[in-house]
């Protein structure tokens, strides 16, 4: 249990409401809110409602090194776009490994898209104000991969938004976004959960149901426009 001194938010809903107030100052027109599953989906649902935006998820997978599966040599998004580190050796063997793991991770991404969206196609970020949201930044690796992936879709403006972040990770992520919105970057940051009084894991069923509800509302609104 985090100490009361380190708690910045009661729960994800409280964090989302505070973040929505900050983002509202930007006066974004019908922004696309892309939540990083699963922890950011409850936050994204609040932001989409408060900012009169559209909710979807951003799906990326790390590409593991052939020498150490815990070390990422790059990332792939659900469109198949690859981002590979400049230090990765592009030999014949290196390319063969990359093609194989990229195909494996793309299959995982397609299954996750089916789980989250069913037959609904992913929202198109092209030409839109896009906000990628997470419930906090520790290393910032997932947010960085998401920003790089969405950048290839040519959004009008790409914004990273988090309630709390490690200061060093915040600097790295901010360099990849057009705008960075972070409520707190405490010097004593140790873990995202440290700054929430109540921080349960978001279960898959809860995430899927939240998205289903948001998609239903968005479909109804678009049909009435």
Major beta-sheet overview: 5 strands, parallel
Q: Give the % helix.
A: 25-40%
User: Can you count the helices?
Assistant: 6
Q: How many independent structural domains?
A: 2
Please state how the strands of the largest beta sheet are arranged side by side: 2-1-6-7-8
Report the β-strand fraction as a percent range: 15-25%
Q: Give me the count of strands.
A: 8
Low-pLDDT segments, ≥5 res: none
CATH architecture of the largest domain: 3-Layer(aba) Sandwich
Average pLDDT metric: 90
Structure classification: alpha/beta
Please write the CATH class name of the largest domain: Alpha Beta
Indicate the CATH topology of the largest domain: Rossmann fold
Head-to-tail CA distance between termini: 47 Å
Order of helices and strands: HEHEEEEHEHEHEH
Question: Which descriptors apply to this entry?
Answer:
globular, 2 domains, Rossmann fold, Ybab, Chain: A, about 220 residues, 6 helices, three-stranded antiparallel beta sheet, five-stranded parallel beta sheet, alpha/beta
How would you describe this structure to a colleague?
With 225 residues, this protein is an alpha/beta fold. The chain folds into 2 domains: 12-59 and 124-224, Rossmann fold, CATH 3.40.50; 62-117, PRTase-like (Ybab, Chain: A, 2-Layer Sandwich). 40% of the residues lie in helices and 18% in strands. It has 6 helices and 8 strands, in the order αβαββββαβαβαβα. The protein has helices spanning 12-24, 41-50, 92-117, 141-151, 167-174, 204-224, and strands spanning 32-35, 54-57, 60-64, 72-77, 82-84, 129-133, 157-164, 179-184. The strands form 2 sheets. The protein has a 5-stranded parallel beta sheet, sandwiched between helices. A 3-stranded antiparallel beta sheet has the order 3-4-5. Strand 6 (129-133), helix 4 and strand 7 (157-164) form a beta-alpha-beta unit. 39% of the residues are buried. The mean pLDDT is 90.
């Amino acid at each position: 249990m985090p100490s009361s001194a380190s708690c910045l938010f009661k729960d994800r809903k409280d964090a989302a409401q505070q973040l929505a107030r900050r983002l509202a100052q930007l006066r974004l027109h019908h922004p696309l809110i892309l939540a990083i599953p699963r922890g950011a989906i409850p936050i994204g649902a609040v932001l989409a409602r408060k900012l009169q935006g559209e909710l979807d998820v951003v799906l990326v997978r790390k590409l593991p090194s052939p020498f150490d599966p815990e070390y990422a040599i790059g990332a792939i998004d659900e469109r198949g776009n690859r981002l590979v580190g400049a230090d990765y050796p592009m030999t014949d063997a290196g390319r063969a490994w990359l093609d194989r793991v990229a195909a494996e991770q793309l299959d995982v991404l397609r299954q996750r898209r089916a789980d989250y969206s069913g037959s609904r196609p992913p929202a198109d970020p092209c030409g839109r104000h896009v906000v990628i949201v997470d419930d906090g930044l520790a290393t910032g690796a997932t947010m960085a991969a998401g920003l790089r992936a969405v950048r290839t879709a040519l959004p009008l403006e790409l914004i990273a938004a988090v309630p709390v972040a490690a200061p060093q990770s915040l600097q790295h992520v901010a360099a990849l976004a057009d705008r960075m919105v972070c409520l707190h970057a405490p010097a004593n940051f140790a873990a995202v959960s440290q700054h929430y009084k109540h921080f349960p894991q978001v279960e898959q069923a809860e995430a899927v149901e939240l998205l289903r509800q948001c998609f239903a509302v968005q479909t109804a609104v678009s049909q009435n426009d």
